[in-house]
Input
Amino acid sequence: MNSATVRHILDTMENMFPDAHCELLHENAFELTIAVLLSAQCSDATVNKVTKDLFQKYKTPQDYVSVSIEELEQDIRRIGLYRNKAKHIHNLCRILIEQYGGDVPEAHDELVKLPGVGRKTANVVVSNAFGVPAIAVDTHVERVSKRLGLVGWDDSVLEVEKKLMKRIPREEWTLTHHRLIFFGRYHCKAQNPQCQVCPLLDVCREGKKRMKTSKVRKNKEQTATSKK
Output
């Protein structure tokens, strides 16, 4: 894909979602880390409902380690995989206290060492909490990038991240990450993408395929109807 096409995609998404942002509610790096950890295989909307009360009860890492894992499990039980996540949070907070003075480390290499914090979570934290440009590849970013041909169909999550970093100007990484998510969450959905009204249909290989299939189906239906 040439740079002009990439620019066309980025500018179109900017026009569609100029205010795209992190939708996980948080007030600091620590709350964001907990929220992103909880968001694995769970919607941001559900996480926000849970953290509304959670962040009132727990303000610091010490607050989390001061209660039993069973109590924390009950506080987050509406979240998918809540038992594993409760263990991760307990262990993460203990490490923050013992090794980082209770603060979330700013370095990506240090963040990924924390329990329950993978590359995606670390990228979200460094970009949103510490202002370091990064592209976090979640299910929306991966799906949209592949449909639009920004990356290959068979690329791994890490390959998707690396290719996007090469094709997108560094200063636009974080904003593009948010816009790709908004585009995938509200427009180019997994099951029902809005191809018929999509301003990027001209560069979308998935959209062209879907529209062609839809046209063929309609023609067959019209032919069958006319024969009756």
About this structure: The radius of gyration is 21 Å. Residues 205-226 form the longest helix (22 residues). The chain has twelve helices and no strands.
